[in-house]
Amino acid sequence: MIIANDIVKSYGDIPVLCGVDLHIEKGQIYGLVGRSGAGKSTLLRCINGLETYDQGSLIVDGVEIKNLNTTDVREFRKNIGMIFQHFSLLSRLNVYENIALPLKCWKYDTKKIDKKVKELLELVEIPEKIYQKPKELSGGQKQRVAIARALALNPKILLCDEATSALDPKTSKSITNLLTQLNKHLGITIIVVTHQMSVITNVCEEISILENGIVAANGMVEDIFLKQPKALKNLIGESDIILPGDGVNIRILLAQGTTGIPIITQMARQLGIDFSILGGDMESYRDKILGSVIINVSNENYKSVEDYLNSNNVNWELVDKRIYSFN
Known about the structure:
Number of strands: 16
Helix content: 25-40%
Low-confidence stretches: none
Strand content: 25-35%
Structural class: alpha/beta
Mean pLDDT: 88
Oligomer: single chain
Order of helices and strands: EEEHEEHEHHHEHEHEEHHEEHEEHEE
Radius of gyration: 24 Å
């Protein structure tokens, strides 16, 4: 659906994108993550043709963006919806009129507009707000209107630029749940630009972490949170755990197959050994729990623990550092 190869973009002498490679499959919910200034919003604007790029190739739904002329770009953008952090609703228009706006701009028939707007309001679950003005809506309701407007022209791709950053955590979760539902119901490809880890773990299937204009890490969300690459730690920060110098320190990775199993207590009971739990970290990922726990075992018990973890197909690794960082 979207293939970027060596995308370079500068504003004057300031480089913003420095050779970005990206591959997003049709129907995915894909996250672009990074600190402010990492280049994620610029990349998003390149994808929908709002920004040009200096070199490289960017193919969206089979179309090379840099080859589009002015007329082609307008037609191309019809297939891409976009929602923003601050909703961008017109205050003088009511909900119905805001959603109908792109349809009117494309001169759709009045009856088709009416039918489409009412369908979209049902889809985003606020049909009762149809004639209210934006000032009468909560932040979450405003974003639902913005989503409905972005879907008015039946786009193939929905771009979300920090779409939940202005919302409280509970409302943010309701919007990410809505995006997941829309992805399943419509089969639409969704690209989420955010710096919020809760958004990534709630909605995204795969992510790229941008640092200084490059993709510093990418992969499935589950793999990224289990492997803890340096780019992720740079983004969300670290807290240090001082590990003992004696014995063996083991990090046990808890993923889909192990989070529902009391693997550590079972191991202690079945092996008849004692060990120390030094620290851990857990994240909610869609309908799963991801995380890890660090334990310390004596040197004489290490081989028994190793055999037990391997025989139960548990992912684990040795931790050699005397200070270990959890996010």
